[in-house]
Specification:
single chain, 564 residues, Trna Endonuclease, Chain: A, domain 1, nine-stranded mixed sheet, 22% strand, DNA_methylase_N6_adenine_CS, SAM-dependent_MTases_sf
Length: 564
């Protein structure tokens, strides 16, 4: 059964994935390259070009979590602990060490869940690949290292223009390990290059126009290797074929003699050759672009994942990706007829993958785990990880922009929603999520101040348990928002307990904003603004409101769902 999991992959691996149950692991963890990767979303806000969902942060810092992880690794002992101890002595309590400790824990679990015939492919960049290889050597054993694959992700990278005195970085590293000495393998081929064809396939068959080359058919090693000795076309030799096989090839016209007395040779047609067996330098697969691109800066092309999956597994095998991001590995596994398990800590990623699978593979069957389905499971999530609870609660109410990141100031804003507000332009609703047990009127009062400071139209205060009388009174004192959809409470308290009882906040309709308007998109160059014709006729709105005497409000038609 295909499985999609929301949560920390270390927890999911330990609690949900059985030992020796996976045939292939592909992982593309954050690289620790000190870059913040943002998923860009179109929003109707004029105050910023786009809102950003930080689906993950590509930096790691040493702190309590890293120290706990280090302590756990050292308690477990073994080869990974020895390597981590040595690296810690060399690197100290650095950001890189925090990253390596995190990876050390997960690599150990991935080795456990792999079958004895399983393979692992770890995708990284040169920033940390040398450290990761040492950790993988410790977990899998140096003898089970198979390849360091180089994927050329770009044709050129002009670092010189940025003032850098170094060569352009155009490749990623993929480290290939197996769990044991026997593993699944399907040889793959790439086409011959034009130079090779020109140099070796010099002959053309007159009747068919097929290109062919002539290959030696003498038996290497002669009688010592057991090759038969007999005469063919007047030439006696040790041959690589039996008499019967040789006669069959002659009858097919595949054995030719270029001149009398010459040693016969075998025709090998170009169109029958599979090509060159795949090497460890991959430059033939281009980055995801066009319709395939979902706007993720680190998105990998589907062809890359299909090559890995189809080369090292069989149909119906199980593929695991513990950092599945936008779901390219999941889509590749589904397209290749494999079962799959995808894990991601960002709730946004889970929703993107759900949509991607159901859109590209209608009727695909999979389960989604880690997402609360009742109040009790929501309580457990809040206790286990307050950040995951916050992200889940935001998506529950339908936010269109949020910050899925554990660090950095949020200015009291956990999420945002937008609605069309008639002649007033776009309205904005802010959310604040509190998953703790001790939430009171003070928290509501502080959120009121945030709504005022941000000049937002409305706010949703989301908490786990029932609101107290003082909390409700504080929210009610904020009054009502004047919207194109009527008078609505400006601040509403949404409790998860009420949500699972079917009670919902009163919100303006978002129905006439296209769903696609909030899907990830690639950044594009700003186009020239075309000014409106002042002589153009005005039109009326179908909701309350009128002209503003103090400001010119421009209605944004690009966010209106087109109707046939």
């Amino acid at each position: 059964m295909n499985q999609l999991w929301f949560g920390d992959n270390l927890v999911i691996l330990r609690e949900e994935i059985a030992t020796e149950s996976v045939d292939l692991v592909y992982l593309d963890p954050p690289f620790n390259s000190n870059a913040n990767y943002n998923v860009l979303f179109k929003t109707p806000q004029d105050e910023a070009a786009s809102a950003q969902v930080e689906a993950f942060r590509d930096t790691w810092t040493w702190g309590n979590e890293a120290q706990w992880a280090l302590d756990e690794i050292m308690r477990q002992g073994g080869s990974v602990a020895s390597i981590i101890h040595a690296l810690h002595s060399a690197l100290g309590e650095s950001d890189m060490m925090a990253y390596l400790v995190m990876m050390g824990q997960r690599v150990t679990e991935l080795h456990r869940v792999l079958k004895d015939t399983g393979s692992l492919f770890l995708h990284c960049d040169p920033t940390a690949s040398h450290y990761l290889k040492i950790i993988l050597d410790a977990a899998f054993g140096p003898r089970n290292f198979r390849n360091e694959i180089s994927w050329r992700r770009q044709s050129a990278h002009n670092d010189a223009k940025q003032g850098r005195k170094q060569f352009g970085n155009v490749r990623d590293v993929i480290l290939f390990y197996t769990k044991g000495r026997q593993w699944k393998w399907n040889t793959q081929y790439t086409p011959y290059d034009e130079r090779y064809v020109k140099d070796f396939y010099k002959h053309t068959e007159p009747d068919t126009g097929r290109l062919f080359r002539l290959s030696d058919i003498t038996g290497p090693g002669g009688a010592a290797k057991g090759n038969p000795f007999y005469e063919v076309m007047g030439v006696e030799r040790h041959w690589r074929f039996s008499r019967e096989k040789m006669q069959e090839l002659i009858a097919q016209g595949r054995i030719v003699q270029t001149r009398p007395g010459a040693v016969p040779a075998q025709k090998r047609y170009l169109d029958e050759m599979p090509g060159v067996s795949l090497q460890n330098d991959w430059s033939d697969i281009k980055p995801a672009s066009g319709r395939e691109s979902l706007g993720y800066p680190t998105q990998k092309p589907l062809a890359l994942l299909r090559r890995i999956i189809e080369g090292s597994s069989e149909p119906s095998d199980t593929i695991l990706d513990p950092f599945c991001g936008c779901g390219t590995s999941v889509a590749a596994a589904q397209a290749s007829g494999r079962n799959w398990i995808g894990i991601d800590v960002a709730f946004h990623a889970i929703k993107v993958i759900e949509d991607r699978v159901l859109t590209q593979f209608p009727g695909a069957s999979f389960s989604v785990g880690g997402i609360p389905r009742d109040f009790e499971s929501a309580q457990r999530l809040a206790l286990k990880d307050k950040f995951q609870f916050q992200w889940w609660a935001n998506y529950l109410v339908g936010v269109q922009a949020l910050k899925e990141i554990k660090k950095g100031p949020d200015r009291g804003i956990d999420g945002q929603m937008f609605f069309m507000n008639g002649p007033r332009g776009w309205g904005r609703i802010l959310t604040s999520v509190k998953g703790g047990q001790h939430v009171g009127a003070k928290d509501v009062r502080e959120f009121k101040a945030v709504i005022d400071r941000e000049r937002a139209d409305m706010g949703l205060f989301i908490c786990l348990n029932d609101a107290t009388r003082d909390m409700n009174a504080e929210a009610a004192s904020f009054g009502f928002a004047e919207t194109a959809h009527g008078h609505l409470p400006r601040l509403q308290i949404v409790t998860i307990a009420d949500w699972f009882k079917g009670r919902r906040p009163v919100l303006p309709s978002l129905g006439h904003v296209s769903r696609d308007y909030f899907e990830p998109v690639k950044p594009s160059k700003p186009s020239k603004v075309k000014r409106a014709d002042p002589n153009a006729p005005e039109f009326t709105f179908t909701f309350p409101g009128g002209k503003s005497d103090d400001a010119v409000i421009h209605f944004n038609p690009s966010a209106v769902r087109e109707r046939a």
